[in-house]
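Work Package 4 report. The design task specified in the project plan requires that, given a folded chain encoded as structure tokens, an amino acid be chosen for each position. We show below one input record used in the internal validation round.
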């Protein structure tokens, strides 16, 4: 999945319109539309804002392989209430906090983090 596809997917997963997201990250709706169409690329500061807003790494957002996956990788429609709670809480973590929790998870459940 490339950057425009990931951006659209993340925005839609949160139930946001282009106008909603543009206002939240303080860019114009037309700029966001161009990003989603793949006709323009965000600068580093906008890319960083988008990654922080969605709780993902910039590598994930750009579609690059990354050791740190998206924090919202737990399905929201999971029937497991514990997983749903983790997914909701993960949206509020900074990237540093997410990295710390990933290290903890890797040490507790190494078999779950094997590639």
């Amino acid at each position: 999945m490339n950057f425009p596809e990931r951006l659209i997917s993340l925005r839609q997963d949160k139930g946001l319109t282009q106008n909603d997201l543009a206002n939240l990250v303080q860019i114009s709706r037309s700029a966001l539309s161009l990003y989603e169409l793949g006709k323009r690329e965000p600068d580093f500061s906008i890319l960083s804002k988008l990654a922080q807003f969605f709780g993902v790494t910039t590598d994930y957002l750009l579609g690059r392989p990354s050791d740190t996956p998206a924090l919202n990788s737990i399905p929201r429609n999971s029937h497991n209430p514990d997983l749903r709670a983790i997914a909701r809480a993960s949206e509020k973590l900074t990237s540093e906090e997410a990295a710390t929790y990933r290290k903890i998870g890797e040490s507790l459940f190494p078999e779950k983090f094997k590639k």
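The radius of gyration is 15 Å. Validation will be extended to a larger panel in the next phase.
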